[in-house]
Amino acid sequence: MSVLVGRDTRVVVQGITGREGAFHAGQMVEYGTPVVAGVTPGRGGSNMTGVPVFDSVQQAVDETHANTSIIFVPPAFAADAILEGAAAGLDLVICITEGIPTLDVVRAVRFAQERGVRLIGPNCPGVMTPGAAKVGIMPANIFREGDVGVVSRSGTLTYEVVNVLSEAGLGVSTCVGIGGDPVIGTTFTDVLKLFRDDPATHAVILIGEIGGSDEEMAADLIAQGYPKPVVAFISGRSAPPGKRMGHAGAIISGNTGTPQSKVKAFGKAGVYVGETLDEVVKHVGLLLPGRT
Amino acid sequence: MKLYEFQAKQLFASKGIPVPRGEVASSPEEARAVAQRLGRCVVKAQVHIGGRGKAGGIKLANSPDEARDYARGMLGTPLRGLMVKRVLVEEALDIDKEYYLSATIDRTSKRVVLIASSKGGMDIEEIADTEPDSIIKHPMDPAYGPMDFEIRDVMARAGFDPKATRAIGTIARQVYQVMLDSDASLVEVNPLVVTGAGAVIAADAKFDVDDNALFRQQALAAFREESEEDPIEAEAHRRGATYVRLDGDIGIIGNGAGLVMTTLDLVTRAGGRPANFLDIGGGAQADSVRAAIEIVLLDPKVKGILFNIFGGITRGDEVAKGILAGTQSLDIKVPIVVRMAGTNAEEGRKLLEGTNLVPAAGPIEAAEKIIELARR
Question: Taking a C-beta distance cutoff of 8 angstroms, is the pair B84, B46 a contact?
Fold first, then answer.
């Protein structure tokens, strides 16, 4: 068991003939993920490292029964790729692309919602269930199979915590990168609900950062009663207000998005917030049922 | 990217949103000439700060000479640290009421929200503190845009004068439209003034454009004025690096926004003060790593550099090559601590052996080492 991606996942790579798309399609295949199709308009009929390429997502779905897409399309065209994926009736669309105009994302999120299609990202590292499927760009070799669900707004920080987990002898059920943009398809709260209902997940690590109030809402959900231990981390505690720290969404504006507010919200919900990732992993180890 | 008030008002006027008569001036004499045409007027410093009135950046002038004198006092002097290069000279309005109206992207509803309040004229944060119940927020469905009844409802809940709601409703729709047309992330009219004669006028304007959309907003991109940015940030921007200048003395370079942010936190926690945020991004090649060192060293306060790399798409050996290229070609007098993990980290560490670069096993150790070395 796992959430979002697993043994039933059949992946179509949107933008498979681009540099990033081609490289990561290869990496996903190497990991054993069933990559059944690629899409690049105008390149239908060709193939990339054994994966058939189609002109449209609909064709790819009709021919290969793909149910999940991953998007490596440049920012100016990526929102259209989300719309196309959602229109083709996929279950899940994962958008890796960084730098999409926010108002385009607003429209794409609305369109996907209306069709019951889950969108992850944009500006995210993707989703990985170790031992079953990698639909993303994370380095697979640092992952161990296990029972800790990881959800994060950041890419490299996710790799860092997964690495610390693995070194501590712990493993991951599913790792979900939700993305660093201000508007994203799936939030912490959404993923916490998925982990709550996943028998393979026994504890959750949540990696948040400054900006927005997604962490506060996650804390509210946990405060209402969450059946599994959650440990959190907040990045950007020393960031000055008004400065955008790399991620478009990582900015303290006025009195919203401050680390103090997030730490306080988790504290009220009884969630331990580690000051370092080592502390986070140590704490998860202590909270996992059946281990000390 | 933030537009200046006068730029935003030009855009407003082109879309039919009523703004006060006025002109921008960059010398006291120009300000006087504009005031002569307008009569009683307001002189407004063009800088991106909140609370401009309280900071002395808005003055009411009763004569052209007074306008000139106020302009002289503002031009060429910093206002809360930002140099005033221009003033906007505008007709003074006969103010009956001051409202607040804005459209912005709301992360929670994932939609554009229309925000209205009858307590205009102060910062929205101040309104939120003192009169939170006066702020009415309404998310709009991107598929349909604002509907007339929604706007009427927002105005009624905000307590707007029924005599003015027809004109304000039109402005609300125009604000939404200009937001879409210009890829704005914020369009704020504060105050929206109802004059004694019953006219509704956008007396001030804040306008933030989504940087991700500048590729298709050529006309607005021309408004960008590099000299306003921090010079090192401007140089980094030209070279395509994600760099934010801070006020400490430890240069920080890493891959991935979250990792770099956390590295800043670790340095701060260990008692150091970061000089910058620099993200080399995913899959960085040796030359961009070398360029990153150069950019960080443009800041004369930097007493040491910390590299924190967790390889994914980025390869440790490639980063190491970039660091070596930097240390060999640049005259670097500050210590450099390198922490490397992930893809090809082993190969990267080998390349750095036998040099004066200081290795660190983990991020916390790296932070402690660079602080200690920078203090020497």
Answer: yes
The CA dihedral of B80, B82, B85, B86, to the nearest 10 degrees, is -50
Question: Rounded distance, CA B120 to CA B123, Å?
Answer: 8
Q: Which residue of B has its CA nearest to A238?
A: B265
Phi then psi for residue B76, to 5 deg, are: 75, 5
Does the model's ipTM exceed the 0.90 cut?
A: yes
Domain limits, chain B: 21-91, 95-221, 230-375
Token pair listed for B356: 């004066």
Q: Which two tokens stand for residue A161?
A: 């915590």
Calculate the alpha carbon distances from B85 to B49, B88, B232, B330 in Å.
14, 10, 20, 36
Q: Which CATH class is domain B21-91?
A: alpha beta
Superfamily of segment(s) B230-375: Succinyl-CoA synthetase domains (3.40.50.261)
From the list B271, B345, B277, the residue with the least C-alpha distance to B306 is: B277
Quick check: B312 and A139 CB within 8 A? yes
Count of CB contacts below 8 A, A vs B? 163
DSSP B272-335: --B-EEEE--TT--HHHHHHHHHHHHTSTT--EEEEEEEESSS-HHHHHHHHHHHHHHS---S-
Query: Cβ of A210 under 8 Å from any chain B Cβ?
Result: yes
Pairing label, strands B111-117, B95-106: antiparallel
Instruction: Give the separation between CA B5 and CA B7, rounded to whole angstroms.
Output: 5
Residues in chain B closer than 8 A to A232 (CB atoms): none
Q: pLDDT for B3-59, tens place per residue?
A: 999 999 999 999 999 999 999 999 999 999 999 999 999 999 999 887 888 889 999
Q: Do the bridges between strand A172-177 and strand A145-152 make them parallel or antiparallel, or are there none, so unpaired? A: parallel
Distance between CA atoms of residues A93 and A15, nearest Å: 13
B348 and B316 in contact (C-beta within 8 Å)?
A: yes
CB atoms under 10 Å from CB of A120, counted, come to 29
Read off the tokens for B208. 């933030």
Backbone phi, then psi, for A256, in 5-degree steps? Answer: -110, 150
For residues A154 and A245, membership in a common domain is answered with yes
Do the Cβ atoms of A139 and B311 come within 8 Å? Answer: yes
Q: Rounded distance, CA B176 to CA B111, Å?
A: 12
> What is the pairing mode between strands A68-71 and A51-54?
unpaired
Q: Which of A183, A238, A239 sits opposite B105 (nearest CB)?
A: A183
Tokens 């607003």, residue? A106
For residue B18, the model assigns a pLDDT of 98
CA-CA-CA-CA torsion sign (A146, A147, A149, A150): negative
CB atoms within 10 A of CB B354: 7
Whether residues A142 and A272 share a domain: the answer is: yes
Distances (CA, A) of A38 to A8, A59, B339: 18, 10, 37
Domain that holds residue A185: 138-287
In this structure, is residue A130 part of a structural domain?
Answer: no
- Could you give the CA distance from residue B295 to residue A129 in angstroms, rounded to a whole number? 39
pLDDT digits 0-9 by tens, A88-110: 999 999 999 999 999 999 999 99
CATH number at B95-221: 3.30.470.20
Helices (H) and strands (E) in chain A, counts: 9, 14
Report how far residue A163's alpha carbon sits from residue A278's, in angstroms, rounded to the nearest whole number. 10
Which structure tokens are listed for B114?
A: 């229309």
